[in-house]
Specification:
The protein has 117 residues and is mainly alpha-helical. It has 6 helices and 2 strands. The chain has one domain. It has a two-stranded antiparallel sheet.
């Protein structure tokens, strides 16, 4: 009998579920972003079919409406680690370092492809 698996840290499954619920793992919709600051906003827009005006809204204000309150801090920490939120915790803009470190792909691509590039 052969068993294959991967060990993960505690909370990994919950975090992946949260990222999926916000649309960060969406492999269907193709979008084009100009700056990494837009990434989480675009994911949420696509997932919840929000109007582009939502980009002006601090995502930190939206999170408690979209995910369980007890998971908000873990998600914020993960987005900071991924450099999709700035170090101060404000979810409206991503770290400028992310723009310098990770080049954006040219043209439209799926959301998961954006983060994998």
């Amino acid at each position: 009998m052969f068993i294959c698996g991967t060990l993960r840290y505690p909370g990994f499954s919950t975090l992946m579920s949260l990222l999926k619920s916000l649309g960060l793992l969406n492999a269907g919709d193709k979008v084009e972003i100009q700056f990494w600051e837009e990434f989480v906003h675009v994911c949420i827009e696509q997932q919840y079919q929000l109007k582009p005006k939502a980009k002006t809204t601090d995502i930190g204000l939206l999170l408690p409406l979209l995910i369980p309150k007890q998971d908000t801090n873990d998600l914020r920490a993960a987005l900071k680690w991924l450099r999709l939120a700035n170090p101060t915790g404000n979810m409206q803009t991503a770290s400028a370092a992310a723009n310098a470190m990770l080049p954006l792909p040219k043209g439209k691509c799926t959301l998961i492809r954006l983060r994998a590039s």
